[in-house]
């Protein structure tokens, strides 16, 4: 019974995860993957955080001379909304504005991904 509960919890957690990876082809014709990312907080926001990370990585890969498989990632506008108080974005402030419905799920997901990228 205990093992079954553990398995159900693991299945539930993985079902709530949003993940992705970037596939590209090098100048030598080798197919590779990079930027494996996963968010497990809120699916409505996580999908946008993953989209932001993959688009960011795709644009970086192209600058390095690679060909990205999913070229739609190159068309995504990674602009962030201007923060109302003109300060740099923080996780806390973005969360507060999102909870007040002053940021859409997409805007919030993009801000979270941007902050995660800059934290590395």
Kindly describe this structure.
This protein is 49% helix and 16% strand. Strand 1 and strand 2 form a beta hairpin. A three-stranded antiparallel sheet has the order 2-1-3, with helices on one face. It is α+β, with helices and mostly antiparallel strands and 120 residues long. The protein has one domain. Helix 2 crosses helix 4 (105-119). The radius of gyration is 17 Å and the shape is elongated. The protein has helices at residues 2-15, 43-63, 91-99, 105-119; strands spanning 18-25, 31-39, 67-68. The protein has four helices and three strands, in the order αββαβαα.
Features:
120 residues; 3 strands; disordered N terminus; alpha+beta; three-stranded antiparallel sheet
Oligomeric assembly: single chain
Question: How far apart lie the N and C ends?
Answer: 41 Å
Amount of beta strand: 15-25%
What do the pLDDT scores average to? 85
Whole-number radius of gyration? 17 Å
Summarize the main sheet.
Answer: 3 strands, antiparallel
Helix content: 40-55%
Outline, from the CA principal axes? Answer: elongated
Q: Strand sequence of the main sheet, in spatial order?
A: 2-1-3
Specify the structural class: alpha+beta
User: What is the number of helices?
Assistant: 4
- Based on DSSP secondary structure assignment, what is the total number of beta strands? 3
State the order of secondary-structure elements, H for helix, E for strand: HEEHEHH
Q: What number of structural domains do the residues give? A: 1
Unreliable stretches covering 5 or more consecutive residues = 1-15
């Amino acid at each position: 019974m205990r093992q079954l509960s553990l398995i159900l919890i693991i299945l539930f957690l993985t079902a709530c995860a949003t993940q992705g990876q970037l596939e590209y082809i090098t100048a030598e014709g080798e197919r590779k993957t990079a930027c494996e990312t996963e968010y497990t907080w809120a699916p409505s926001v996580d999908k946008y955080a993953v989209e932001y990370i993959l688009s960011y990585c795709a644009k970086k890969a192209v600058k390095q001379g690679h060909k990205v498989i999913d070229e739609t990632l190159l068309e995504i506008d990674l602009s962030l909304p201007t923060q109302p108080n003109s300060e740099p974005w923080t996780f806390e402030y973005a969360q507060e504005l999102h909870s007040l419905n002053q940021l859409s799920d997409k805007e919030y997901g993009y801000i979270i991904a941007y902050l995660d990228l800059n934290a590395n």
